[in-house]
Amino acid sequence: MADDPMIKYYIFRKSIENMLFIIGLYPPRATSKFYRFIPYFNMFVQAYTVFGILCFMQLHIDNLLEVVSVTGILISNSISIVKTSCILMNLDDLLKLLKTNDEYFNTVAKSSRSKDLLKNFSTFWYLSWVLLISCVSLFMCATFPPMMQYIIDNIRHINNHNYRLPIKVVYRWLPRYEGISYVIHWILQTYGAVSIFLMTCSIQSNFCMLVFQMISEFRHMSYLHTHFDELNDKDSTVRYCINKYIMLLKYRDLIQNIFGPIILQMFISNALQLCVSLFILSQLRADPINILFFTAFVITKISESCICAFAGSQLISESEDFKHTVYSINWHGNKRLTCWVLMSLNQRPMTLIACHYTTISLNILVSIVNTTISYYFLLQTLQSD
């Protein structure tokens, strides 16, 4: 049962809903009036952390390694604020899209006509698991060691007047972290870290699921055309596919409006964050916790980029396959079918474009790798100077 793709899909769908609910972005399940304030509190905590990191960078501006070591965390917190803002501005459209797509997918999934509806879903499933595991590893490496050290020192009655927080921050009004001030800031940073990794996993997986639902709809239409000669009412099938294609174009536009800014800044920032993490890894010496932390950070950013890029490429491929399937039906001599085939062939492959700037596909991973390498050697040059 666990290997059943349909069971995996519903587990995947429910997990996304749960993560969105925890960070305050799934109001349909909310019962409290204060629920809508959760995203704003999350953004406040992340903005507070960003301010502390900027103060830390200003204090250590002459130390390149110290500045670079917090750059990735600074970008992650800043981007999480942008992600939350984008989702909040388009929350109604997102909920409508989720509901409509779910209703259609459930209707098609209950029929046994499209056997390959969930083909390649395991790839999305495993990529999402890699992202989740790497985020959890990142969270544990950042938050647990400082608190364990604090607990051990208190048990042994060791007076440490400046404990280490999960994230390196400096606040002018707080010269050292000890006692209740340390616990409060540890809780705030831990809460912020939880909200960031839940935001990352839920948004990437949500985008992936919405695109996969569109892919499934293309597969269902391809199935209808593959068995076109067996259908009794061919005209109604053609009308159904035309209406469905128009609907998919509207869904595509909604997905671009909601996720376009998020994915564009993700692709741009991931190159910089990967470069920073690789640079830090090359400088670390015999520090297993930090090595594990930055390794998990690299895996998180790579899997985050792969999920979006793979989903975009799969949509392009499936829309191309649909055009080929339409062309392969027995349309010669039938004016209505000929018109439908010509309309289909004149359509460009369905692509997702982030902010009218770049196509979301696997090709963009090459750009990320090239940019990462360029920035990495630039940092090496600055370090040697």
UniProtKB/TrEMBL annotation:
One of its GO terms (biological process) is signal transduction. Pfam families: 7tm_6. The chain crosses the membrane at residues 37-61, 123-145, 191-212, 254-279, 291-313, 352-378. Keywords: Cell membrane, Membrane, Olfaction, Receptor, Sensory transduction, Transducer, Transmembrane, Transmembrane helix. Its main location: membrane. One of its GO terms (molecular function) is olfactory receptor activity. It is a multi-pass membrane protein. GO terms for cellular component: plasma membrane. It is found in: Cell membrane. Belongs to the insect chemoreceptor superfamily. Heteromeric odorant receptor channel (TC 1.A.69) family. This is Odorant receptor.
